[in-house]
Fold:
Amino acid sequence: MGDILFLTHRVPFPPNRGDKIRAHHVLAKLAQLGPVHVGCFADSDEDRLGRTDLTRIAASHCIVDRKKPLALAGIEAVLNGQPVSLTAFRSVRLLYWVEHLLAQRDIAAIVVFSGQMGQYVPPDYRGQVVIDLCDVDSAKFEDYADAGERVWLNRREARLLAREEQRLAYNAAATILISDAEATLFKSRLEDPSQASVHVIGNGIDAVAFDPAVTTPHPAFADGTDPHFVFTGQLDYRPNEQAALWVIESLLPVLRERFADAHFHIVGRNPTPALAARKAAPGVTLWGEVPDVRPFLAGADCVLAPLLIARGVQNKVLEAMAMARPVLLTPEAASGIAARGGEHWLVSQADPAAMLKRFEKAWASPAERKQLGEAAREFVLQHHAWDAMLAPLDGLLSPALGVRDAA
Structure:
């Protein structure tokens, strides 16, 4: 049995945002299979503090500070004919570290988390390569362009990133997507799908940590008889910013016509200037980064996820469901989770009147809301436990590592 190299675009500690949560659990799974060496990037002081945790689980690691400004990455990308996503995560130091590691250790398998890290797999590497793309990022940039955002740049990124995604899939032993929908979309975009081995490994949830029975709601939710709505997420991520702004500008005014004291709580890191400018809007509280999101979920009468652009499985939705909260979301946000509308959550198009009507019906029946929340938690307990989600990794890596296929 050889060692494993795990390449990920962010330090997987602390596991406090969607991509880092998944990377964290993948790393924990890999550490059960053999010695793991981790190459990754740090974006913040918080990421750098994760070095202590990484040292405990990894046989060795290389953390590179990602300091390259996005504008510089864009210039390099245009000059080199590369996607910005790759140049933003290009590091000579990490390249040398990988080269040295492969020369010094018996690396039987390389697991790549997120497409921009595939550039660190040497062309002549002969071990097992598994690529966890999570989502079809090239399609996300197409969605941005279709929505009229930086059209030329996003169409260019989509085109070049699709080419890189195909290259990775053709050269990997296995390519992982986060949902059946993403896997089907990905295969449809390949020139020859038969050249790629595509698998689905969904996101999980720590339902022991996200348990309403052991969480006290935040005191801010104790007052008033009208509903409290909560949105959570990394707020400088464009789809999250867009969704929160849509609630403030389009949905909340309609909700407050019906519920005069309806309140919208926005919880997450790095609020953008556009969100900060609206923090004084009637009925809005912008909490920003909080030590623990669970008291905010526990206090919510409804968790909103009105994403207009969404890929794969939304961790924010799984967390709310695990906390037995009614979730009101768009079809885009629901696409990666096999729950059923009306049974496990409330689904509505991003239309203020339609969302109000959908919520109003549930609000009129406390028993229905309670049943909806309980069914949501039961769904994630049955279908999204991390151990079950990541079990297929055993089989994907067994040819290289000699581990027993769990199936």
About this structure: Residues 19 and 204 are 12 Å apart (CA to CA). The two ends are 20 Å apart (CA to CA). DSSP finds 18 helices and 13 strands in the chain.
